[in-house]
Amino acid sequence: MDDQETAEFWDDFAPDYVAAQNESRLPITADLTRYLSQQNILPEASVLDIGGGAGRFALPFAQVARQVTISDISQQMLNFARQVVANTSLTNLKFQHAAWSQLPAQPQADVVFASMLPLAPDELAKFSQLAGHFAVLNRAVTHTDSITTELQQLLELPPVEDPTNDAAIFIAYEKQVQQLGYQPWQRTFTYQLTEQVTQAMLEAELMADLSAPQQLIFQQWLAQRFAQRSEITAQQTYIFKTLIWRV
Questions:
Q1: Is residue 37 one of the residues assigned to a domain?
Q2: What's 102's DSSP letter?
């Protein structure tokens, strides 16, 4: 997609994305803010949060940093961020409506940060040039669900494309940063959660996409797993990695 198409997509998707983000039980924002503060990266720094959306990371960063700019290609995402900021006492947040690709390749802040920004490895040279002191990339690299894994094996389903399950891109990022002559380090954050799942939830998610033989196997599995119970427990694992380098 070009920048206009990307902006339109995120403007349309913004309400659902923000709602899902607000429901998240993962403490990655607090944990990453604490870690970057302990590393003396955030305190008294200016920060450019590229693809900052509704301010998920920018708001906690602003409690530590001198100034934080939320930059996003989607005006609707920035509108959500403004609404959130309006309900706080923070005065050190700015908003920038821009595609990151259009930013001039020169330092824009002491720290340039992005979480889940769909960067290609060869774009890390420019990303680095935007930082005065530190560049920070955060990404979910693993997401597993015990029930999903069990059903994929049982029904021989193809892997589901999941942007929160991509360890390969992070490895490519690290190699590229090293090739650029920087000495990166990384921090891993691992979370274990449980979720209660009903039979109706699983049927709505899978049944329509299964062949007749798969549906029969699935129904037998459901009858066994939900025998005399209304819910079963899914074990979920999330792993985030943060790559940091001094520029």
A1: yes
A2: G
Residue burial 131-155, b: 16+ Cβ < 10 Å; e: rest: bbebbbbbbbbbbebbbbeebeeeb
**What is the span of the domain harbouring residue 66?**
3-144+160-194+237-246
Q: What is the pLDDT of residues 2-29, one digit of tens each?
A: 899 999 999 999 999 999 988 899 999 9
Number of residues in the chain = 247
Residue tagged 């894994």 (tokens): 149
Return the C-alpha torsion angle 112, 117, 123, 129, nearest 10. Answer: -10
> Does 7 map to a domain?
yes
Which pTM does this prediction carry?
0.92
CA distance 185 to 94: 29
> Cα–Cα distance between 104 and 95 in angstroms, integer?
17
- Decide if 39 contacts 246 (C-beta within 8 A): no
Pairing of strands 67-72, 93-97: parallel
Handedness of CA 167, 168, 170, 171 (dihedral sign): positive
The per-residue pLDDT for range 115-151, each reduced to its tens digit, is: 999 999 999 999 999 999 999 999 999 999 999 999 9
Strand partners, 140: 240
User: Distance between CA atoms of 170 and 97, rounded to whole angstroms?
Assistant: 27
Amino acid letter for position 179: Q
